[in-house]
Specification:
Elements lengths: L2 H9 L2 H31 L12 E11 L13 E12 L5 H5 L4 E9 L10 E14 L3 E14 L18 E14 L4 E13 L10 E12 L21 E20 H4 L1 E15 L4 E11 L2 H8 L12 E12 L2 E10 L10 E10 L4 E10 L2 E22 L1
Antiparallel strand pairs: 1-2, 1-8, 2-3, 3-4, 4-5, 5-6, 6-7, 7-8, 9-10, 9-16, 10-11, 11-12, 12-13, 13-14, 14-15, 15-16
Length: 408
């Protein structure tokens, strides 16, 4: 067989053509979305010509390149290097709300993410739709270095199936949480164009709502270009600052106390043949150290009935199911953004019969206050980077004063 015949046999073979077709199809989908957005922007531009309107819309495209981090041995078969694509619609903040001024006028928007994840037939492709906030850490006239936090919904095309797709131990469901952490640099070429570059971690996980759930972690490098389609209105000042006048007030020294509970659901049919409902109660005490940050301590108590099954499967009898209750103590930090609060806890268990998860745990929570004292919250419980469960709940917060100070 000649070299030419070998070349034709490889490059015209059905597997290669199918793989090439998938790549071309994905690129065409991304390109189509971008063209539709740009067409809509051009059609809408006329309505933004009013002299009292100042647009701050920015459209950005990014190309990523990275690999799948195999944090478990079972994920080694997915090792590959691959591209990813992102279309971003965002806007500049101008300080209309106090939290925008506190955070040095961040970018806010939504990201549409796609990756073929190496085109592995057992893993499929990954999609993400993620609202985000891009916090400036260092800023000059034309250069900005910042940190982007994105949290939204992910979709995996080929999750685990015990018959048709038993090799995919990474993800057990189509719908997942999608999280992106990015350190980014932005350089403004002119008013309309900005070039960007950064390094990020893209994560997909269902929080053990359905097993298996090792999760997908994608370390990525990216470059991009951002386009600002509308001219700035010179009749309006660039930033909005709330008026500040001399005042006299009493500032009370107080500790903020949060108490509440979560319910979590664990689908473990593929492992133990049943589902479990997890209950979690907690209390946090915070001391505000700046307009943006609060530090404190927390206590919590969790009951996970799946741990009873785990002990019995391992040959350890459980005479009292309450023996698996795990109390814990933790350090807490809260990042405040108007009605939103992002809470991070790092703690240690004080007891509990089942100890396979180890003595340490992490919690990541998002709270939204719909009144001064009542809030709704979502929590992700983690053990050394491995998601245990997602909890939904409500809480109540109040202040405990310990002194007062007069400010003039």
């Amino acid at each position: 067989m000649t070299i030419r015949h070998k070349f034709e046999l490889y490059f015209i073979s059905p597997p290669y053509l199918n793989q090439l077709s998938r790549k071309i199809s994905a690129i065409l989908r991304i390109t189509s979305i971008f063209l539709i957005i740009m067409a809509g922007v051009n059609q809408a531009s006329a309505q933004f010509e009013h002299k009292l309107f100042s647009s701050n819309l920015i459209i950005e495209g990014k190309i990523h390149y990275g690999f799948l981090y195999a944090q478990h041995l079972e994920l080694e078969l997915f090792n590959a290097h691959f591209p990813a694509f992102e279309i971003i619609i965002q806007k500049l903040t101008y300080g209309k709300n106090k939290w925008e001024r506190d955070y040095n006028f961040p970018l806010i928007g939504v990201s549409m993410f796609y990756s073929g994840v190496g085109n592995n037939p057992s893993l499929g492709s990954a999609y993400g739709l993620m609202p985000f906030i891009n916090f400036p850490l260092f800023k000059t006239k034309n250069f900005t270095a910042g940190f982007r936090l994105a949290l939204g919904i992910g979709y995996i095309t080929k999750p685990f199936d015990r018959i048709s797709n038993f090799k995919n131990l990474a993800i057990g469901s189509h719908l997942n949480a999608a999280i992106n952490l990015m350190v980014e640099a932005r350089y403004r070429i002119n008013y309309f164009l900005t070039v960007t570059a950064g390094v990020s971690l893209q994560h997909f996980s269902n929080g053990s709502l359905k097993l298996p759930n090792y999760g997908i972690n994608l370390p990525l490098l990216n470059i991009g270009i951002a386009y600002r389609p509308f001219k700035e209105n010179l009749n309006i000042s660039g930033r909005f600052f709330a008026p500040v006048e001399p005042y006299s007030a009493i500032v009370r020294r107080s500790v903020e106390v949060n108490i509440g509970g979560f319910l979590g659901f664990k689908n473990m049919v593929a492992v133990y043949g049943k589902n479990y409902l997890v209950t979690h109660f907690y209390g946090n005490a915070f001391l505000r150290v700046s307009p943006k940050s609060k530090f404190g301590i927390g206590l919590d108590l969790s009951y996970d009935p799946s741990q009873v099954t785990l002990l019995e499967k391992s040959g350890t009898p459980v005479s009292n199911k309450l023996s698996v209750i795990r109390p814990g103590v933790n350090g807490a930090y809260q990042l405040v953004m108007s009605r939103l609060g992002f809470i991070f806890n790092l703690g240690c268990y004080l007891g509990g019969k089942e100890k396979s998860n180890g003595p340490f745990y992490e919690k990541i929570s998002v709270q939204y206050g719909f009144t001064k004292n009542l809030y709704a919250a979502v929590m992700l419980k983690v053990h050394w980077g491995r998601a245990d469960y997602i909890g939904w709940g409500f809480g109540y917060r109040f202040d405990v004063s310990y002194g007062k100070k007069t400010v003039k």
